[in-house]
Amino acid sequence: MSNRRSFLKIGAAAAITLAAGGAIYRMVTPAPAPHPFALDGQARAALNAIIPVLLGPLLPTEATARAQALAATLERTHGAIRGLPLSTQKEVQDLFGLLALAPARRLLAGVSASWEQADPAEVADFLQSWRSHRLAMLQTAYLALHDLVLGSWYADPSSWAAIGYPGPRKELLK
């Protein structure tokens, strides 16, 4: 019985010491400043798999025009993310960091292959599952991806004709 009490006392003292040390460290060490979003290889690969699924029939069917539209949308999406506040850019970077990890990609997204080799049907299933997921965090992640990609697509005036939008009224541009 005495050994058990000693063990519990030592364990409690160690936990308090670790907690106090962590608190002191956080007070002494400033939090690192968030860095701007970087469209690294994994984020680029994920977006290259996600963009055509989200845009679907909006994309041109001719191969060269399709490739150009996808590349332009990727760059506009990157620019849109870079236009967000740094704290939001960090959250988007964290999302892509999560999607880059093979176990998370398989478990959370259901995409078994790498993003470069992802089956569009799996990507569509992943997006749909996040869209209607019971966890609000995954719904928010889906909405972020959806809004960033579609907002970037429709930011380009060449995409307006497909939906019958003539553009802003000329008198509003003055």
TrEMBL record:
InterPro entries xref list: TAT_signal, TAT_signal_bac_arc
Protein name from the UniProt record: Twin-arginine translocation signal domain-containing protein
Domain of life: Bacteria
Species this chain originates from: Duganella fentianensis
